[in-house]
Write a structure and sequence with these properties.
Layout: H1 3-16, E1 18-23, E2 27-31, E3 34-38, E4 43-47, H2 48-56, E5 60-63, H3 67-80, H4 93-101, H5 106-133, H6 138-143, H7 146-167
Amino acid sequence: MNISELMQIHSIGYHLQDVKVNFGYDVKIEAPDVSIDAKHGEILSVPRWVAEVLSAEKLAEVQDTDMVVALKQAIVKENVQGDFDLSTLEPEFYIKLNSFMNRLPQQDKDKLESMLNSLVRKRQGKIIRLADSSKMSADLAKKLTVEERVMFDYIYHNSAEFKKQIMGDKK
């Protein structure tokens, strides 16, 4: 399975999770697997994909984690760690962040992309060094996002294959 297929599967799971929304209008919706009867000002939990539709139509406001704060905290935590130590990110961190960014105006999105790029570069360098030197431990696996696990495995296997070609079966 490649990384885009894995991300798509996890993204689907993420969009099926419930999130709280604050309704700006009285809303009554009847659809297969979704039934909503909400009054103005009411807060209900609905599947994220429904919340995103309601938000796009300006019918409700999603009450979700502020991913700007989460990204800033992740950058600070990552900068505190050593070259061979990663801070912990939740498995769907990048999926959540991308979903959040899609709801932002372009100017805000550009600022967040710049911050995200610095986090990705820092973590990518660490993951490459770790994958080149050892197998993934259970402790390390807990710290990585879904996408980072795929990258780690890819680098680990290709690095091992490269070493085997150069050195033969000697270690």
